[in-house]
Amino acid sequence: MSSSFMPTCISKLTNSTILLVCALLCFSFTSTEAYDPLDPNGNITIKWDIMSWTPDGYVAVVTIFNFQKYRHIQAPGWTLGWEWSKKEVIWSMTGAQATEQGDCSRFKGNVPHCCLRKPFVVDLLPGTPYNQQVANCCKGGVITSWIQDRDNAVSSFQISVGSAGTTNKTVRAPKNFTLKVPGPGYTCEKTKLVKPSQFVSPDKRRVTQAVLTWNSTCTYSQILAQQTPSCCVSLSSFYNDTIVPCPTCSCGCENNITQPGSCVMPNSPYLASVIAGPRKNSFTPLVQCTTHMCPIRIHWHVKLNYKEYWRVKISITNFNYRMNYTQWNLVAQHPNFDNLTTSFSFNYKSITPFATINDTAMLWGIKFYNDLLMQNGPSGNVQSELLFRKDMETFTFEKGWAFPRRIYFNGDNCVMPPPEAYPWLPNASPYQVISILCPAMAILVSLAFLLAYA
C-alpha cells in the first residue's frame, strides 16, 4: 500500500466520522426551550368545533383554553391567526373580529367580514352589546391562568365560514395557527381531527355534540417570547447588613449612547414626553435606568426569626413606564413551602409539580386590592409577608437555605443572584477569621512589648 493512500483514507474517515458525530448530536439532543419543569403539561389548546352546515360552508365555535397553571394572557390580549386550506372567507363573526377585511371585490351584494387567506382575529372589548356576544367572549383578549381563575381561563367566539366544504369529507381544517399574546412566544402544532366535543345544557339535562372538532396545541417558550429576561431577584436578611442586588445587566445594559431611549431616569425633565411619545403604545418596555435594567424586580427579605416560626417579606417593583401588570402572579420554589402557615395580602396555592414534594408556591394579588401592579412610580409596588413553621430537621439559615431556589413572574424565569453572593450568617462570615486574629495579634504584640522592657 502506497504512503499517499494513507492520508486520503484518513481524510475520508475523518470526514465520515465528523458527519456521523454531527448526525448523532442532532438526533440525540432535542429542544427543551418550550419545556417548563414546574408546569410540564401546560399548554394553550385551540378547539375548532363545527356546529352546523350552511349552503356554502359552516358555523363553528372557536375556543381558546389556557391549561397553563400560572402563565396567563394579559391586556391587550390575544391575537389568533391561521391560514385557510382552500379559498374560505369569513361571512360573519360573533364575540370577535378580524383585524383586516382584505380584498372582497369578487363578491357582489353581501360582502364577507374578511376575505384574507391568512386572517388575524382579536377578542371584543368588555361592554360589547349582548347581540354581538357569545359565552366566554368579550374580555379584551385577557385569559387568566388555570390556578388563578379556572372559569375565566377560556375565551370563545363564533365564526361563519363560506366557500368551504359542506360535509365531513369536503371540509378542510385551518392550518398554521399563530397565537400572539400580543407578542410571540407560542408555537402551535399541526391541526388534528379529534373526537367531537360535547356540550351540556345549563340545566344539565341534555347533551349536544359538535359535527366535527379540530384541535391545535400551543406551547410557550420564553426564548421565543423575548431575547432577554424580564425580571430579576434581589435578596436581604435581618442577620446581615448586605443587600444583594439584582445581577448587573440582568435584562440588558444601560446604554443610551448607542441605544437612545432604552431607559429613562425618574428625575428626567423629558420623562413625560418620552412616556407619551409616538411609541407610547409599544410593547417594548421603557424602564427606569438601573444597573439591572429589568421591568420587574422581586425582593426576598428574610425578616424575622421566632422560636417556632420564621418570616419573609416579598416586594414586587415595576420599573416599566409602559405597562400595568393586570392579574400578575409569582411562582417561587423553596423547600419550606410545605410548612407555609400564612400569606398576608397575597393569595396562595401550592403547585406541587412533583407529587411527593411540596416546594413550589404560586402567589397572586387579591382582587380589587393588589391584583393590579401599576407602572413605574409611587404605586408601582406590591408586597406581602409569608410566615413559615420551622421543621427543626431541615431548618437553617446557613448556606443561603432561607432564600428561594427559583422565582417566576407572570410565567417568566427571573434572574437570580449567584449563590456565593447570598447574605452570610455572622458566624459564617469570611471576616470571622480576621475578627478573631486581630485580638490575638494585639495580645501577642503586648506580650512581646512587656518582655522586651521587663
From TrEMBL:
Which InterPro entries has this protein been placed in? Answer: COB_C (IPR056900), COBRA_pln (IPR006918)
One GO CC term on file:
plasma membrane
Q: Which UniProt keywords apply?
A: Glycoprotein, Membrane, Signal, Transmembrane, Transmembrane helix
- N-terminal signal peptide: 1-34
- Output one GO BP term: plant-type cell wall cellulose biosynthetic process
Where in the numbering of this chain does the COBRA C-terminal domain appear?
Answer: 230-423
Q: Does the keyword Oxidoreductase apply?
A: no
Per the record, the domain of life is Eukaryota
What the entry lists under Pfam families is as follows:
COB_C, COBRA
Q: Which residues cross the membrane?
A: 433-453
| Similarity remark | Belongs to the COBRA family.
Give the protein's recorded name.
COBRA-like protein
